[in-house]
Amino acid sequence: MKKIFALLSIAFLFSCVSFQYVYYDQKDVLLKGIDMDDTLKIANMELEKGGNFSCLGLWVIRDQIINKEEAKIISDLYFKYIDTIKDEFDIWHLSWAISNFYRNGNEEIKTVLNDAYNDAVKRPEKLKQFKKIANELINGKKIYMGDIHSLGRYYAHTHIIVVGNPDYLQSIADYEKIKKKINKS
Length: 185
Hints:
Elements: H1 2-15, E1 21-23, H2 36-49, H3 56-59, H4 68-81, H5 88-104, H6 107-120, H7 123-126, H8 131-139, E2 145-148, H9 150-157, H10 172-184
Antiparallel strand pairs: 1-2
Helix pairs in contact: 2-4, 4-5, 4-6, 5-6, 5-8
């Protein structure tokens, strides 16, 4: 498991050099047929598991259209986990997710996410290593959307349920199969 984590970390760093999946228009990143209820369950499982990259389950759906019930779940997850996260990468990405959900949301979504957003926009101040980039992504004038790079895309494909789209999971059972394979390695 440690070898896989080390290899993924190195691959992640190299993939970040090429930001081939960055968009600034939400219509370019919307997924048709996303099962948000079950995808949020996967995001919750990842956060509950903890550790590096646990916040990415919310990060990969940060640009999708959500309803107020989903916004409430997202806000609750944010507040349940944000102060337990130690890694700056995860703090930055979870705060970025909240920022995008809020900034892309309608007034109803903004009302539900208001407290989480007000907290998220302050998080870059507390970072040491990623302060500048986190501040740009969370508080900048542009809303940075998309999978960003190859590993972001891979993570999205293995953590978002989009029924009928073979590039994504079809069920929570598919997610569990992937996790079992990784844990056996």
